[in-house]
Amino acid sequence: MSKLIPSAAKLLSGATVSKAAAPAVVASKTNYSTKSESTFEIKPYKLHKLDKGPATSATLTSEDALQLYEKLAVLRRIETASGNLYKEKIIRGFCHLYSGQEAVAVGMRAALRDVDSVITAYRCHGWTHLMGVSVLGVLSELTGRRTGCSRGKGGSMHLYGRNFYGGNGIVGAQVPLGAGLAFAHKYRGDGGVAFALYGDGAANQGQLFEAYNMAKLWDLPCVFVCENNGYGMGTSVDRSSASTEYFSRGDYVPGIWVDGMDVIATREATRYAIDYCSSGKGPLVMEMETYRYSGHSMSDPGTSYRTRDEVQEVRQTRDPITSFKEKIIASELVTPDQLKEIDTKVRKEVDEATKQAKAEAEVGPEELAGDIYYNNLENVIRGIHPAAPLQHVEVVPRN
Amino acid sequence: MSSHFTFFPDEHKPIEGDTTKMNMMQAINNAMDITLKTDSSAVLFGEDVAFGGVFRCALGLQEKYGNDRVFNTPLCEQGIAGFGIGLATAGATAIAEIQFADYIFPAFDQLVNEAAKCRYRSGGQFDCGGLTVRAPCGAVGHGGLYHSQSPEAFFSHAPGLKVVVPRGPISAKGLLLSCLKERDPCVFLEPKILYRAAAEEVPTASYEIPLGKAQVLKEGDAATLIGWGTQVHVLLEVAQTAQETLGISCEVIDLMSILPWDEETVCNSVKKTGRCLVAHEAPLTSGFGAELAATVQSECFLHLEAPVARVTGWDAPFPHVFEPFYLPDKMRCLSALEKLIHY
């Protein structure tokens, strides 16, 4: 098994930076697939104020293909598990699923380097996992348990990881933070690029335009990524946005439109964006056109503002996993059996994590007053309690 | 998870006539329906209100009044508030829905710096009095950090605004109709857990409940318990339990208007009972209870048998997994009341 599916760390290390679209070579590298690499055409990008866009074809090795497929499958499975846990009332509160949008995160992540940073909104379960948090770390956060990546204190919208700045609950609020992250990369000279993700709904928040301006003014290595899934909560893009060409809405910030349902396209576009931004040219806007299968959150059935047929049609014709699967099987990069093995492995991994996420304990009630301040000057946390105020506790060690 | 309170329906009807059983969502819908029908300048807008909004308060209103009067906005709270202020300044009755009170902070500048000061700074020439901003607030059982907050105290610090919180369907309809007629900008905070949990026989005709006036819901002589929104029901249950277990009779006041608040009703009651307990879900420090406590001690000083007690949320972000420990629930209020009685 381990030969077939190298660790996630390898996929995510950014080691695979081969750029040139090498010709397809027919060679039997494994016992399973018949070709070791293959080249794929990418749906044309749309460009705004750019002379040249990302590569319009890209080469995958069979290893790349298996790795990408596994990540897509894990993300889908995490969301299926989340939806079920929500229906069982084990996840409470607000929960936003990413199913349908997996190719955006998986393709982008495959191109990211160790030095790059990411911040996103509340549809963050998959991103968190891709940035290095275990499936249990994600699911336990959703169930509010101590093994959650935010100790169960953040819940569905507030997941964090290394170089992953959350998981943010207020629509659009994370985008200016992304500009700040980018400034830090530039100031430190570490060559990193910050990716600030937001939805088509958030694209109409005023603070985005404030962030675009600062980023361009100071030529920050920031990629503003609009995940356009067609609907801002229950309102379609045509009803909410005077211009739905989100890639051009940075005006003086150059932009690219990308087919967000194609994991190869999102990977190539992200490689291009990293090159562009880390060479000192300033920010980019990258629109990823995608689709969400579920409602906005669990309380939205997602059918009052679109038809069931529309959702079905996307599932059948544009699903990011199915279409990728067909592509890599048809090109003989992988065999159906190899993908089945991955499916089985992923199902087992997520099922086990789900079980454990239900069984773990919550953090103790003393953490109600935990980590509110770095240095709590009063020592206690005020509030009326018959016996005593709460003791402020420092759960995470202070430097 | 069972909710942390028991709903006490209003016994008193504000007007005679036919009634219909409505929950608070339906009562608010009804108030907006009446306004859209009788006030041709009235317009309702906000995120997803076209299909009723996430809590369905605007259900059916777009079909009834058309999409030029009931419409969706983009997700842009600062823009929604500013747009509403402009519309109201031009003479319309603008009903702006902010999807959750927790999302109102991008609009805070518009409300505090523009709406509140409009009349004053133009020397009375201009105003945006037709503006009412509605927003669901308060604990809901599982809302977590950004779907649970009670921001009334922030707005109480902005002279020029009126801030109102209903406790159920009857008060919601009457208070909302008052806000919509009021010629000052109003922030109408709707405790979201009551949308469906609360049902009452609501008069079908139009009626108004005066702003700036509290209501005494239960008379008593041992202590005055003051709350607003959902907390009123917690306090009514506390009063009931105190009667049964301690044999004391408490007076319960629903403040209803936070700005301006009814000093007369509160102070008269405290002068009578000599003891005062204020409870709210928002954190203790600079919560609106602080304003009540300060005024009560200055106005009722010689009548007080004990310091004013406050039972509130903790000075912590609203916690997702600790909501039951965070809320000023019945047991915490009862315990504080016992201390107040035995001071």
From TrEMBL, chain A:
The record's catalysed reaction(s) read: N(6)-[(R)-lipoyl]-L-lysyl-[protein] + pyruvate + H(+) = N(6)-[(R)-S(8)-acetyldihydrolipoyl]-L-lysyl-[protein] + CO2
Query: Does the keyword Transit peptide belong to this entry?
Result: yes
Under Pfam families, the record lists: E1_dh
Keyword Cell wall biogenesis/degradation assigned? no
Q: Which residues cross the membrane?
A: none
| Single biological process term from Gene Ontology | pyruvate decarboxylation to acetyl-CoA
| Annotated EC | 1.2.4.1
Which GO MF terms are attached to this record? Answer: pyruvate dehydrogenase (acetyl-transferring) activity
Top EC group: oxidoreductase
Q: Which UniProt keywords apply?
A: Oxidoreductase, Pyruvate, Thiamine pyrophosphate, Transit peptide
Q: Where is the Dehydrogenase E1 component domain?
A: 71-364
* Cofactor(s) the protein requires to work: thiamine diphosphate
Q: What does this protein do?
A: The pyruvate dehydrogenase complex catalyzes the overall conversion of pyruvate to acetyl-CoA and CO(2).
Full protein name: Pyruvate dehydrogenase E1 component subunit alpha
From TrEMBL, chain B:
GO MF entry, a single one: branched-chain 2-oxo acid dehydrogenase activity
Going by the UniProt record, its keywords in alphabetical order are: Mitochondrion, Oxidoreductase, Transit peptide
Mainly localized where?
mitochondrion
Q: Which GO terms describe its cellular component?
A: mitochondrial matrix
- Signal sequence segment: none
Subcellular localization: Mitochondrion matrix
Q: What is its EC number?
A: 1.2.4.4
Transketolase-like pyrimidine-binding domain location is 22-197
Subunit comment: Heterotetramer of 2 alpha/BCKDHA and 2 beta chains/BCKDHB that forms the branched-chain alpha-keto acid decarboxylase (E1) component of the BCKD complex. The branched-chain alpha-ketoacid dehydrogenase is a large complex composed of three major building blocks E1, E2 and E3. It is organized around E2, a 24-meric cubic core composed of DBT, to which are associated 6 to 12 copies of E1, and approximately 6 copies of the dehydrogenase E3, a DLD dimer.
Q: Main role?
A: Together with BCKDHA forms the heterotetrameric E1 subunit of the mitochondrial branched-chain alpha-ketoacid dehydrogenase (BCKD) complex. The BCKD complex catalyzes the multi-step oxidative decarboxylation of alpha-ketoacids derived from the branched-chain amino-acids valine, leucine and isoleucine producing CO2 and acyl-CoA which is subsequently utilized to produce energy. The E1 subunit catalyzes the first step with the decarboxylation of the alpha-ketoacid forming an enzyme-product intermediate.
**What protein am I looking at?**
2-oxoisovalerate dehydrogenase subunit beta, mitochondrial
Organism encoding this protein: Pieris brassicae
